[in-house]
Amino acid/amide ABC transporter ATP-binding protein 1 (HAAT family) (Paucimonas lemoignei), 256 residues
Amino acid sequence: MTPVILETKNLTKEFKGFTAVNDVNLKVQRGHIHALIGPNGAGKTTCFNLLTKFLIPTSGQILFNGKDITADKPAQIARQGVIRSFQISAVFPHLTVLQNVRIGLQRKLGTSFHFWKSEQTLNQLNDRAMQLLAEVGLTEFADTVTVDLPYGRKRALEIATTLGMEPELMLLDEPTQGMGHEDVHLVTELIKKVSAGRTILMVEHNMSVVSGICDKISVLQRGAILAEGTYAEVSKNPQVMEAYMGTSAAELQGAH
Ligand SMILES: Nc1ncnc2c1ncn2[C@@H]1O[C@H](COP(=O)(O)OP(=O)(O)OP(=O)(O)O)[C@@H](O)[C@H]1O
Ligand SMILES: [Mg+2]
């Protein structure tokens, strides 16, 4: 296995003449938590949409484990182990937490009619679902109706359903968005925990999350990579500091 799990080569996306992603060469190393950061409108979500095939690149290539996946369909990407969290985490609010995880697992296994007849299979599914809940600290919430879960725990449930898809590379777009301090802490710790044996690429605005758990950071600005390195490296890069001028400059420094 190569140390690089995901690579983009000159990845570019134009919308009617506007270049949202511009010649991006990204290398994500196996085992890393890699953050994609940058000011609003920098092209982070568009990048994710290209990686998961929600959007077709104008030009450039995407390689996963050395294989060109540029022309693959979203479902093919997912089957190969590139899983974006919200993609499969459309949870059913009025089902229990356990039921939601089980549905995710059922979807992954496919649904042949005979499959459902086997009680043994259903028990295996339950066991696996409980295992996943344990992994994200939701054991005690297994029978809670999802709508009653605290916000941070809902994100944990999404992560559990994502793990059920057996991701080799997990893509998380702003996993701590809209959360209070405690939930941010909970979800950050959880991401760190589930990163063991996996690779995570995440878009994240919260610099204390980025500095706390990310091995490598790529900074996007106006669609292009402005800087790359560890948090210590990019946070003292003058160009990055300039790109973050204004409110976010305080954020960058506040994370120290
Ligand atoms: N479908 C589209 N058509 C036209 N322009 C688009 C489209 N999607 C995104 N853009 C533009 O591309 C640029 C990058 O958007 P993108 O959503 O990728 O930024 P982002 O880095 O995720 O920003 P944020 O931090 O606000 O989430 C923006 O200027 C946006 O307006
Ligand atoms: Mg975005």
Observations:
- The radius of gyration is 19 Å.
- Residues 44-45 surround magnesium ion (ligand 2) (CB under 6 Å).
- The mean pLDDT is 89.
